[in-house]
Amino acid sequence: MCARRHDVRHPDLIGRGERLVSLERSGGRDAIPGLSTRIDVETSTLSPDQATALEGLVHRLGLLDAVEEAGQPVRTVPDARHFIVTVDDGDACRRRAFHDPLPSPDHAELVHLLESSAHLA
């Protein structure tokens, strides 16, 4: 499944060096079964500093290396939040799943950056 609705890659991104990064979030203490949220952030809509930070996180976390479809992460703690990050550059979509506790400070920074970018839009 690609980052765009209806499983269609974003053709406007092809060859432009821009990306669409999506975060799907579900679970958590007050989760309602089947309810999740999704944030889509295009790098072209970010400030240059935010876009650079997001690109750095995408590379450091190896998200461009994840070419397989990500399933729902395995629950490891009660009330864990689940995250699926999708990176779409117009040519390919790459997905990676993770959950609470977040695996690294870079994962936490990625979630924070995407969530704060959605609030600015």
Could you explain how this protein is built, in words?
- The two termini are 24 Å apart.
- Helix 1 (48-60) packs antiparallel against helix 2.
- The chain is α+β, with helices and mostly antiparallel strands and 121 residues long.
- Strands 2-1-3-4 form a four-stranded antiparallel β-sheet, covered by helices on one side.
- It is globular and about 40 Å long.
- A hairpin with a 4-residue loop joins strand 3 and strand 4.
- It has helices spanning 48-60, 105-120, and strands at residues 20-27, 36-42, 81-88, 93-99.
Low-confidence stretches: 3-9
- Oligomeric state of the chains present here: single chain
Look at the structure and give the mean pLDDT.
78
Radius of gyration: 14 Å
How is this fold's topology laid out?
Blueprint: E1 20-27, E2 36-42, H1 48-60, E3 81-88, E4 93-99, H2 105-120
Antiparallel strand pairs: 1-2, 1-3, 3-4
Features:
single chain; 121 residues; alpha+beta; globular
Quick synopsis:
The chain is 24% helix and 25% strand.
